[in-house]
Amino acid sequence: MNSGFQIHSIQDSSELLVNVLKSIANTDRLLILCHVSKAELNVSQIEKLTKISQPTLSQQLMVLRKNNVVQTRRDGKQIFYSIKDHKLVEVLKVMHRLYCA
Q1: Is residue 4 included in any domain, yes or no?
Q2: Structural domain count, the chain
């Protein structure tokens, strides 16, 4: 059976793939990622859009940073979040097309 991909390439990227999958395997984190995939947002903006309480939001943003899927930019006292790798945006688009459209 030929599945169209090389197993060794998955082995080489397995840690990155696992971190991406862990990141989207939580309802709050998936919602956060969907919003920050569209625009760079600060914590207040994310809280307003997602309606996730601030303590939970901070915890989930920390997980996303730890998993290396979001990046931050500081502007004064505000921290802005965005998707670190554009490939994750493509994954989110495919998931939306397959499951939400």
Answers
A1: no
A2: 1
Helix (H, G, I), strand (E, B) or coil at 67: coil
Q: What share of the chain is helix, strand, coil (3-state, %, to 5)?
A: 60, 15, 25
- Residue 90 within a domain: yes
Distance CA 30, CA 23 (A): 7
Quick one: average pLDDT of 65-80? 96
Which run of H or of E encompasses 70?
strand 70-75
Phi, psi (rounded to 5 degrees) for 85: -120, 125
Residue 3, pLDDT above cutoff 70: no
DSSP tag of 77: T
pLDDT in tens, 73-91: 999 999 999 999 999 999 9
CB distance 89 to 22 below 8 Å: no
Tell me if 57 is assigned to some domain.
yes
pTM above 0.90, yes or no: no
